[in-house]
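Figure S4 source data
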Amino acid sequence: MARSNCRVLVVEDDGLLRDELSAGLAAHGFDVIGAGDGEDGARQATEGSPDVVLLDIEMPVLDGLRLAQVVQALAPEADLVMMSGHPYLCRAASDLLGPGVAVLAKPFAFDDLLSRLGDRHLPAPG
């Protein structure tokens, strides 16, 4: 996979935040897929072959913790980045899903998200 083709699935039920994250990632060269709830996120994770799944913990239909477990089972090669406005949910995500899962507490700076994606996911310059 070329670094400039890194596909990020953004699963967030807040449409405005999902759109802002998607636009910011796309502006940085990422191929972005969006989903508005956990059920759609599970479908997109299996059909869209994302390299990274950025997901909210609190969502209707299928919450982020359960979606993360589904993604780990169906698309284990995808990296997970969880986000929540509740610090206790961030700790729970780390405890339940293991140390390989990045967690961001909302609100966060966009640069913090980019640093969580790490060098292997950042698109090559130019």
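Figure S5 source data
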Amino acid sequence: MPQGYDYDERGFFARAGDEVRSWFGDEEAERRREEDMRLDERDYGDRYGNHRDSDYGSWRRSQIASLDRDYDEYRRENRSKFENEFSSWRTNRQTQRDSLNKVTEHMEVVGMDGSHVGTVDKVRGDRILLTKNDADAEGRHHSIPSSWLATVDTKVTLTKTADEAKKHWRDEENSSALFGYGDRTGDQNRDKTRTDGKDEGRTSLDRSFSGTY
């Protein structure tokens, strides 16, 4: 019996958790799952064995064996499918992160349809910030995630059309994350300027993107 195993304490979440863990090779979880099945069978037999004939018992065992066989086959197929899909996704995601390192200031960003999306201002974390002087930007900074990258050469090409990108890009002026993007250099001088009352009229956005256009 698995160490620390208590059949009476094996509720739904414990069983479901071990089921998932067993898919990924957790041998202890698999042993607990097998013990659950064995004791379930025994418990059922204790309750109903005296009320069923031998033919029923034989039929039931064959049905359970068939169910277990089909389930194990299903589990193997789907585990393999998950591993293959995850591996492919991870490779593609790493390629996108590597492409992000090639993105430079002033690069044009276009959709998969070749239409203009914006112009690179800078890269911050896992996102590309776009300048605010494009017509569709309406004087506001927007950003797009690196997961949208298709290729980066002389321009940045996305996996979305230009219209899709503009529909789903993030308006940084409305994002609380914006205030972590700003260059910290010279903060003391800016603080002093604001204290002297010479910085009136500037927005937090302008300060966060000091020197951008």
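The CA atoms of residues 179 and 204 lie 8 Å apart. The beta strands are 108-110, 116-124, 127-130, 142-145, 149-152, 156-158, 170-171.
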